[in-house]
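Hey, I'm writing a tutorial for new members on how sequence and structure tokens pair up, and I'd like a real worked example in the thread rather than a made-up one. If someone can provide the structure for the chain below, I'll link this post from the tutorial.
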Amino acid sequence: MRLLLPVILPILAGILLLVSAKAGENRTVRTGILVAALAAELLLVVSALAAGGAVELGKLTDTITIRFQIDGISRLFAALTSVMWLCVGIYSISYLSHEEEESRFFGFYLIVEGVLIGLDFSANLITMYVFYELMTLTSLPLVLHERTKAAVMAGLKYLFYSVAGAFLALFGIFFLAGVCRNLTFTPGGVPGILAGNRTLLLVSVCCLLIGFGTKAGMFPLHGWLPTAHPVAPAPASAVLSGVITKSGVLAVIRVVYYVVGPDTIRGTWVQTVWMVLALLTVFMGSMLAYKEQVFKKRLAYSTVSQVSYVLFGLSLLQADAFVGALSHVVFHSVIKNGLFLVAGAVIVQTGWTRVGEMRGLGRVMPKTLGFYTLLSLALVGIPPASGFISKWYLATGALASETGAFAYAGPAVLLVSALLTAGYLLPVTIQGFFPGQEFDDRELRERNLLGKEPSVLMLIPIGALAIASLILGCFPGWLIRCIQAVAETVL
């Protein structure tokens, strides 16, 4: 029961909020339900992760069960999900205060959290796939929330790409089931899986990598990210980028390291294809972000690039690279949630959506821009901020991976991407704090924008995430040790 409660509670609370939207409940009740559910969920997740264990929910067939189990990977992803969901949820109370239908957003927001925890707790490939599909369907209303034509078109694109990727993954599962009927997650891979048809096994893994890579924004099925983020509310954009994309990463980890095993694809054409697609996505995403002028879309292209840092690290099948990949999952989630919350605060306070409009932003929102700068430096990888730690492990892991040209191409692409990241993030800080002597703030005074910071409920989560991005870089030891313990079991 302890493993079921973190899944059931937010789903029930979300349904209650959806019902209250029709019943006309007042805002205090709605926000009270949201905060209580998020706080209780965090406690339930911590309790479940501490207790561990497994539970079987039922059988789909004689050999296929719906089952939850706690292991090292589920601890990392479930803890990250619940903490980020609480931070962004608190921010959304103020961000959506002007919305007439905030109950609908809050309701689906909580439901998605329950589904994600179910995904994190999944003990086999079938259970994970069920919750993976549910995640797409329940998160779609977050993209559609504004109900404008652009939001509807973005929602349809999100749905199309997600379903296409999921169907490709389903084909891979069917092929994989033909090779091995045991799809239970086992560190290092299911025993005896290499006894089957190796060609069919490699084809199934390739389908699964590209299919699940869709949610992680990996080329060629990355197009939903830059379309969905600009039209979704900032809290939705934050969790889409910072948390939901990581569900694709989790699925890839489960397939490679817990079902087929890293030795199955090491040195094969599948590993080569995976590394090529990951590095291509890193470079392409950074270039597109550098050229993009719409602020939230720039951050979306950045996510395309940064999440593929993780995929590249995983594709190397090497211990240090694995540590770098999983630490980047945590660091990127903290940083990108914070950056999207900053973007939302700028939009709410000023109405500015394009980078070119943000000259002199430091006179409007100095604290917010300061937090943005700290988050940006962390994403670039400037020590001692957190991004430096994960990129260091990724680079050293690549050099030690014995993957031929990729051992050197990987660090080179990561370095170029870091320079491009500085090129598309830091100009906002420079032009915001130092607009130049010729800058005239008359328009800012006329619009009463000088010193117009967002509300405390918006500023505190932004500040907490910015400070966390620094603290995690200064004191990464505990996280690195946890990930190294997982790496020892799967490699």
